[in-house]
Design goal:
CATH superfamily of the largest domain: Winged helix-like DNA-binding domain superfamily/Winged helix DNA-binding domain
Number of helices: 17
Number of strands: 10
Order of helices and strands: HHEHHEHHEEEEHEHHEHHEEHHHHHH
Structural class: alpha+beta
Helix content: 40-55%
Distance between the termini: 79 Å
Shape: elongated
CATH architecture of the largest domain: Orthogonal Bundle
Number of domains: 3
CATH class of the largest domain: Mainly Alpha
Oligomer: single chain
Length: about 325
């Protein structure tokens, strides 16, 4: 069946919000437990789009799964299918989500050694032009009442992706965005992308998984990443991802805020780097403190440096920020 690209307007925010009475048009954020993010499964792009939408329908106060009903036409639109055979194909897609298994670490097992094998959907009920979708009950701990260890993704962004592998890489990196980096073995990446036993030559793996994902994510999402090959011997065994906020994305979505941040943060960041702080630590400092608090701490440490009273400038600066030192206090000494 021939597939065509969906116009940008359909994938815009209006696609999800223009009809308040249609739940599928209200989807914005999908939240899932980190164990589900790291689960091992194989999935097509259309299957993944359905699951992203379905997860986004869950409300924070839901205590049980609900059946989600929408027209078959709407489901076809979510999958971005077209052509005469799309009605038949959509049935095959939902049926495969009932058949298709997922391997996930049991959230209730402290040892993280117990594996659960479960399907995504328990049923798909087609009747009079509508379809009613139901989650597999075993997924409740990974999607309901999440208070910690979860990852939130922007549905509108991911619906624009043309590669299911890019979506999976995005989920894995989004989980570690605040940390700023993530290292995974080649086998771990393949398991999460459902290509174990395939792409055995590294150049093929890099081209079809990493580079395609990088182009999609860096162009269409809120995060940006670079990667480094881990090669302890002659063989490349893993990938180190360096993750940051996508400045181009932020500028496009909130240009005023971005201009303000550009004026404020670079001088502080440069100064903190001069003290030997890593970008990950700097990001956390900026997140936890005001600009004035950081600047006061820097000025206080500079006073101590001018008096030759500092043995470890990096450690002193961290203490100064934590304790909110003020330079006026040290001018009097």
């Amino acid at each position: 069946m021939k597939k065509i690209s969906v116009p940008v307007s359909i994938l815009s925010e209006k696609f999800f919000t223009k009809k308040a009475n249609n739940s599928y048009k209200n989807a914005m954020i999908a939240i899932q437990h980190n164990n589900l993010v790291e689960a091992k499964y194989s999935m097509t792009l259309q299957q993944k789009r359905i699951m992203i939408w379905l997860v986004s329908q869950i409300k924070p106060d839901d205590i049980d799964f609900k059946e989600h009903t929408l027209s078959i036409k709407e489901l076809i639109e979510i999958c971005q299918l077209s052509g005469e055979s799309s009605y038949k194909e959509i049935r095959n897609i939902t049926f495969s989500l009932i058949e298709k298994g997922i391997r996930i670490i049991d959230i209730t097992d402290p040892s993280n050694k117990r594996e659960i094998q479960v399907s995504w959907l328990s049923s798909a009920d087609y009747y009079q032009g509508k379809v009613k979708l139901s989650f597999s009950p075993k997924l409740k701990p990974y999607l309901l009442q999440l208070k910690e260890k979860f990852t939130a993704i922007n549905v509108i962004d991911l619906m624009q992706f043309k590669s299911v592998h890019a979506i999976r890489i995005y989920e894995l990196l989004k989980q570690y965005q605040d940390i700023g980096e993530r290292t995974l073995t080649i086998d771990e990446i393949k398991e999460c992308c459902g290509v174990t036993g395939k792409l055995t030559k590294y150049p093929d793996f890099e081209q079809k998984i990493l580079l395609i994902s990088q182009r999609e994510i860096n162009k269409k999402s809120d995060i940006h990443f670079e990667f480094e090959r881990i090669k302890p011997s002659r063989k490349i065994e893993g990938i180190k991802f360096i993750i940051s906020k996508n400045k181009a994305y932020e500028l496009q979505n909130n240009p005023v805020k971005e201009i303000q941040e550009i004026k404020i943060k670079p001088p502080i960041i440069d100064t903190l780097k001069e003290f030997g702080l890593s970008l990950r630590v700097i990001n956390q400092i900026l997140k936890d403190n005001t600009e004035q608090t950081i600047q006061n701490a820097i000025n206080a440490v500079d006073l101590q440096l001018s008096r030759g009273q500092v043995r470890n400038t990096k450690a002193m600066l961290m203490t100064a920020i934590k304790e909110q030192w003020h330079p006026e206090k040290y001018k009097q000494r």
